[in-house]
Amino acid sequence: MVSLVASGVLSLIGIYWLPFHAPSTAACLFAMSIGCMANWFKNRSLHCTITGPLFLISGIAFLLSALRVIPRIDTLWVWPVLLIGIGIAFLLEWRNAR
What we know:
By secondary structure, the chain is an all-alpha fold. It has helices at residues 2-16, 25-43, 46-66, 75-97.
């Protein structure tokens, strides 16, 4: 629920500030990071300890790229890193849950 609200707020911001327009990768990653942080505060789930900061760092990288503060990001390395990090986080959670 928190991710949905965060996504809506970021989309509203995106109406006035182009880097956060509705289908923006940075906005989606920020919303997922906010959702993970809220889940971590509420449930203390291990995977959110890893994925929350991972989504946040990726969102910042995409935002800085959209603002042209850093050169255009090659997404061929960002998405595999995210998927591997998410996979490791869930495997650790699954292993420790037993």
